[in-house]
Write a structure and sequence with these properties.
about 210 residues, mainly beta, five-stranded antiparallel beta sheet, nine-stranded antiparallel beta sheet
């Protein structure tokens, strides 16, 4: 992870991420490994069907796990350009969707999909416009608009690879247009179907010292 501010000052971070599919729901766990100022910080998300996901943050300095409540989900995740809401699983039926057009983005044929929330109180965004790659159904690009219809953030997939038969975004960027700040993500190593223990996705595991 590389954070770049408006003055082109750069901060590097490394982390490990785990995810597990439980059928109708999923769980994910992330832990920062460097630099020392953020190492040990952990983030856990439990996907829930029909309601908001449960999210937890562990800060080593406080030595405790705290739940991210609904009022905090529009806040920035550890000073990146992602918010806690961006890491939630948003159900398809939470939005009204419309295909605006079809066009090519870089080398990909895409549907341009507009998604407008049915309940604005449930989200910080007024709408999202996604460039969905036709043959693999991954987002090449996503524009995020606030409730006044201002474009506030742009997500782009910089590199997509097929790994173990699964199309995967391995490089991406989230840009905050108001802050003129960017967060770049690059996956160095990835393994699928590796048999991750359910214990990893518990709040107790967030405090482990490994």
């Amino acid at each position: 992870m590389l954070l770049i501010d408006k003055g082109n000052q750069k901060r590097f971070r490394a982390l490990v991420m785990y995810a597990k599919d439980y059928g109708k729901t999923s769980k994910s766990y992330s832990r920062f490994t460097s630099p020392a100022s953020i190492a040990g910080t952990a983030f856990l998300t439990w996907g829930n069907e029909g309601r908001d996901d449960d999210q937890f943050l562990y800060l080593p300095a406080l030595q405790r796990v705290r739940r991210i409540v609904s009022s905090q989900k529009s806040g920035r995740f550890v000073n990146t350009d992602y918010t806690y809401e961006d890491f939630q699983t948003r159900e398809v039926d939470a939005d009204d969707h419309k295909i605006l057009r079809e066009e090519k983005w870089r080398d990909h044929d895409c549907w341009i999909l507009e998604s407008i929330p049915r309940e604005l109180k449930d989200t910080q965004y007024g709408k999202r416009i996604s460039w969905v790659i036709k043959d693999i159904y991954l987002p090449a690009k996503v524009e995020y608009y606030d409730k006044k219809n201002n474009l506030v953030k742009v997500f782009t997939s910089s590199a997509i690879k097929r790994i173990d038969g699964i199309w995967t975004i391995v490089e991406s960027e989230m840009k905050d247009l108001k802050r003129r700040h960017r967060t770049l993500m690059k996956t160095e190593t990835i393994r699928y179907n590796s048999g991750i223990s359910d214990r990893v996705f518990t709040t107790g595991y967030m405090e482990h010292k490994e």
